[in-house]
Write a structure and sequence with these properties.
Distance between the termini: 27 Å
Largest sheet: 5 strands, antiparallel
Number of helices: 2
Helix content: 25-40%
Number of strands: 13
Radius of gyration: 30 Å
Order of helices and strands: EEEEEEEHEEHEEEE
């Protein structure tokens, strides 16, 4: 697709690795796309647990950057959906309550007579206006809920399609997906250096990455 990628070739496998987007957001989880093929005549396993990321700190020590698995990402999405559903429920309840008060009103004024001003007032209720408001509120609530469900389903489907999962790779087959891991740490404006190590079929592919800050415009 025209994006740069690193190619690592070993005895039993070839691994391609490149960033999922052209720019990594500061403080966000890095996301890379991994592709791997099997050069042997037997199936080999690609296991997410066999992918390690370690950041090299300024003092030379290594800090693990845990990989975020598909199950963890899916749980995060489910949590977001629950929170979203609660917020939608609150909004729908407020919408319905507001609609239930529609059709009610009051009137009043002052009439000036030869005996002086006379105040008058009262209240009224329009069942037609109330019914229209409640029907509109119900339609709006249904649309909000439907949109929330659709977004949640789309997000889960995108995770299912895109995120790297455990696979057995047949000879000559390519398998890949997105690798998410914990954001590296660095002082503002400093580069971040880390190594992505992918163990597959007895091979270890070590790929060193330097994540530089975005130049000032």
């Amino acid at each position: 697709d025209g994006r740069p990628a690193i190619v690592s070739k070993k005895k039993s496998s070839i691994v391609l690795l490149g960033p999922a987007s052209r720019e990594l957001m500061n403080g966000a989880r890095p996301v890379y796309v991994i592709g791997a093929t099997n050069l042997t005549t037997q199936p080999i396993d690609l296991r997410v647990a066999n992918i390690q990321v370690n950041q090299r700190m300024p003092d030379g020590s290594l800090k693990p950057l845990p990989v975020i698995t598909f199950d963890q990402l899916a749980q995060e999405e489910r949590t977001r959906q629950v929170i979203g559903a609660l917020l939608i429920g609150v909004a729908a309840g407020a919408n319905s309550y507001s609609a239930s008060r529609s059709g009610y009103g009051s009137y009043g004024g002052t009439v000036y007579t030869n005996r002086g001003p006379v105040n008058y007032g009262g209240s009224y209720y329009s069942p037609t206006a109330n019914a229209i408001a409640q029907a509109n509120a119900s339609a709006q609530n249904d649309a909000m809920i439907a949109n929330t469900v659709a977004r949640g389903q789309a997000n889960m489907a995108a995770l299912e399609r895109g995120v790297l999962k455990d696979n057995s790779i047949m000879p000559g087959e390519w398998i890949g997906g997105q690798l998410h891991f914990t954001p590296p740490e660095a002082e503002t404006g400093q580069s971040k250096q880390y190594t992505i190590s992918i163990s597959i079929g007895g091979d270890v592919h070590d790929i060193d990455v330097t994540q530089s800050p975005k130049p000032a415009s």
